[in-house]
Amino acid sequence: MAQRPTVARTVAKLRSLLSPYRARGQSIALVPTMGALHRGHLALVKEAQRRARRVVVSIFVNPTQFAPHEDFGSYPRRFAADIEVLTEAKVDMVWAPAAEVMYPDGFATRIAPQGAALAGLEDKFRPHFFGGVATVVAKLFTQVSPDVAIFGQKDYQQLRVVTQMAKDLDLPLKVIGLKTVREKDGLALSSRNVYLSELERGHAPALYRTLEECAARIKAGEPIEMVLEEGRAQIALAEFTLDYLEARHALTLAPIASVKDGPIRLLVAAKIGKTRLIDNLGV
């Protein structure tokens, strides 16, 4: 039977557990999560194990990245089940602080990212979000001090923000973005997929199908804005309420008008029922 990962709940305990790894010169990878683990998270763990001798998975539902009207209270929390999954995956350690540990009384410092964080995508609909993400991820990076950190590409704007933050702050680690893990019908794996009704689940793959069709048409030389307008209409027909479908520069997330403007990433966010889904695809 696999050995259960050690769980640290205070910074002092975390650092004492990591100290022997560093004393032996062992590399450390961090996989930041909010729990409710699925196959996508396990793909991140596998990549972390490929890149480092020791793997730390953080489980923390970060309150500062949720607005009052969002689903912080109902966000799926399955800590015992997550530990079982991570035991099977042979993870070394779980960093699972309480909110009071991450944000103790008197906490007064927050990171305000710019650049990709102000691209008019997720930030337009969730203006609080990237400040909360950047602050908590910076704390995770300084607490664990990993050699590498593994993130999924599904949250693509977040990946660009975190990558730029690590670069700008000269943090001594490499941020790795791993390809999105999908269901057989193309739906990107997400902890929020559990909110979908059976009918909504049937419509949900339309987001990825639309991305694929738009990417193929843009590659074939069709005008970008025309392709996007038709894609937006297609998503609406699938019973989604669209927040955005955009073509952006893959690194800066700046708007583009032509394939000559640089590598392209298509990004989409839409709501079906009460569930908001996001996805993206390179062109």
Write a structural description.
The protein is α/β, with parallel strands linked by helices and 283 residues long. It folds into 2 domains: 6-178, Rossmann fold, CATH 3.40.50; 191-278, Pantoate--beta-alanine Ligase, Chain: A,domain 2, CATH 3.30.1300. 38% of the residues lie in helices and 19% in strands. Helix 6 packs across helix 7 (156-168) and helix 9 (206-219) runs antiparallel to helix 10 (224-237). The protein is globular and about 55 Å long. The protein starts with 5 loop residues before the first strand and ends with a strand.
Residue fraction in strands: 15-25%
CATH class of the largest domain: Alpha Beta
Give the averaged pLDDT, no decimals.
96
Amino-to-carboxy terminus distance: 44 Å
Superfamily at the CATH H level of the largest domain? HUPs
Low-confidence stretches: none
Helical segment count: 10
Helical proportion, percent range: 25-40%
Order of helices and strands: EHEHEHEHHHEHEHHHEEE
What is the global morphology? globular
Task: Kindly report the oligomeric state of this protein.
Answer: single chain
Going by helix content, strand content and strand pairing, the class is: alpha/beta
| Largest β sheet strand count, sense and barrel closure | 6 strands, parallel
Structurally, the number of domains stands at 2
Question: How many strands in all?
Answer: 9
Q: Roughly how many Å is the radius of gyration?
A: 19 Å
